[in-house]
Structure to design on (465 residues):
């Protein structure tokens, strides 16, 4: 029998593979109805990671209430949130400049940005290097390079920084942790 | 009695999972986590066990080893607890396993991509021998101030002529964090670097999770005039299998009083002995 327990476990293992192998791509959804504006893979990631110990921010009231109802997570300001769930079209420079990056002593107290982009697998050509990547990983993605430049600024002083979970409309996911060096080709 | 799948409740798993993802994002950094009570005592592999329980799913094939052996009491107990609460298949073959929990050894057979090795850690803080305060060691990591770790090795050279740390030999991960690799022999330290698989380390009593992602630079601390050396087994042969160049246990034959050597990774030894045309 498969239940939420098993489905979130499978989704978590995909996240484990993606975090440890930046730029690789996997598809993942849970079989539950989705009443948010986000894709099923975003909802699956939220259900896998959120609970009442977590704070998050998202722009639209309906999505916020849905995430809170499903997981018990608390809504917070962008600058306080452990997770920010956002569509690329709604990203702002201010959001990226104020989100938590952790401290040198506790770099894990940083925010994870879950961004829904138009497509992963096509679009701008990115090249990734760093831990988890054997030589170079090529990643096509519609995410505007200006957001990646802002991310680079926030990740300049390792170990502090932000980790990105990128999801597209077709439920493909990829991860760019703070250790990854990103170049736009 | 009916148990939760993989023993832990979902809230506990979620917390461990979030911390594990952070640990992978910050290689070598010890992420604090709320270590849960388990039916085995802290200090007996509960950190590794919590990682395994948070990771494992129905499709996994599990291997549990204790110092190279699939059959020691600790390995058997941990494997039984995991199997009783998940019903997953188990194996002794490293290359057949998707998830490996190990105490104090990295198997002889190299990990494959997407395989996960979970190591049990008694003392996760490499600076603890020189600094008893957790608050201060945390600040030393923040400042990348590792003189204490170097000085400790230097003092060993001054006192004994060489570095005497055998197991738990400190490493520098991705040029940033000095990390305790758990009490694996020095022989296993080079396997941490550029590994195809993911290595997760869990300390239950000390409440820390940390990670070495695949393809990460891991250097054992050493000096130019005292380079890092692994234990040498060049001139010994395994009495059971005739293998050479693997990590060996030194044993004494109780009837003859003679010293002999045997391969420490028993599943690897069995695999080699079962091959056609094996040495013995």
């Amino acid at each position: 029998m498969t239940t939420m327990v098993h489905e979130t476990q499978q989704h978590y293992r995909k996240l484990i593979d993606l975090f440890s192998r930046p730029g690789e791509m996997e598809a993942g959804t849970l079989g539950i109805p989705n009443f948010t504006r986000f894709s099923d893979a975003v909802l699956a990631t939220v259900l896998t990671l959120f609970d009442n110990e977590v704070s998050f921010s998202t722009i639209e009231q309906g999505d916020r209430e849905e995430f809170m109802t499903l997981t018990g997570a608390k809504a917070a300001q962008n600058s306080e949130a452990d997770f920010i769930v956002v569509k690329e079209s709604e990203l702002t420079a201010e959001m990226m400049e104020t989100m938590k990056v952790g401290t040198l002593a506790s770099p894990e107290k940083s925010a994870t940005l879950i961004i829904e982009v138009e497509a992963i697998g096509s679009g701008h050509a990115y090249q990734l290097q760093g831990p988890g990547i054997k030589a170079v990983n090529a990643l096509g993605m519609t995410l505007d390079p200006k957001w990646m430049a802002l991310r680079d600024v926030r990740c300049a002083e390792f170990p502090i920084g932000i980790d990105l979970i990128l999801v597209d409309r077709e439920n493909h996911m990829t991860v760019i942790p703070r250790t990854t060096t990103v170049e736009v080709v | 009695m009916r148990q939760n799948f993989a023993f832990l409740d979902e809230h506990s798993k979620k917390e461990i999972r979030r911390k594990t993802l952070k640990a992978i994002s910050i290689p070598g950094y010890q992420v604090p986590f709320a270590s849960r009570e388990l039916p085995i005592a802290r200090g007996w592999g509960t950190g590794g066990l919590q990682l395994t329980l948070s990771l494992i799913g129905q499709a996994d094939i599990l291997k549990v080893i204790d110092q190279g052996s699939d059959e020691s009491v600790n390995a058997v107990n941990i494997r039984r607890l995991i199997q009783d609460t998940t019903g997953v298949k188990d194996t002794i073959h490293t290359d057949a396993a998707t998830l490996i929990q190990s105490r104090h050894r990295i198997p002889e057979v190299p990990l494959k991509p997407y395989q996960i090795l979970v190591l049990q850690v008694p003392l996760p803080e490499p600076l603890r021998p020189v600094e008893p305060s957790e608050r201060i060691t945390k600040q030393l990591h923040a400042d990348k101030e590792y003189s204490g770790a170097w000085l400790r090795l230097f003092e060993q050279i001054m006192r004994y002529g060489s570095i005497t740390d055998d197991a738990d030999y400190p490493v520098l991960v991705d040029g940033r964090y000095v990390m305790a690799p758990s009490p694996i022999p020095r022989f296993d330290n080079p396997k941490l670097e550029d590994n195809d698989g993911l290595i997760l380390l869990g300390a239950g009593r000390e409440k820390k999770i940390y990670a070495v992602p695949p393809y990460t630079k891991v250097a054992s601390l050493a000096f130019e005039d005292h380079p890092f050396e692994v234990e040498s087994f060049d001139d010994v042969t395994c009495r059971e299998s005739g293998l050479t160049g693997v990590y060996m246990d030194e044993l004494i034959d109780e009837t003859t009083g003679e010293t002999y050597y045997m391969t420490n990774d028993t599943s690897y030894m069995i695999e080699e002995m079962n091959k056609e045309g094996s040495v013995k």
Chain A touches chain B at residues 2, 5-6, 8-10, 12-13, 15-17, 19-21, 48-54, 103-108, 110, 112, 131-134, 158-159, 163, 177-179 (CB under 8 Å). The helical segments of chain A are 4-20, 40-49, 61-71, 93-98, 145-154.
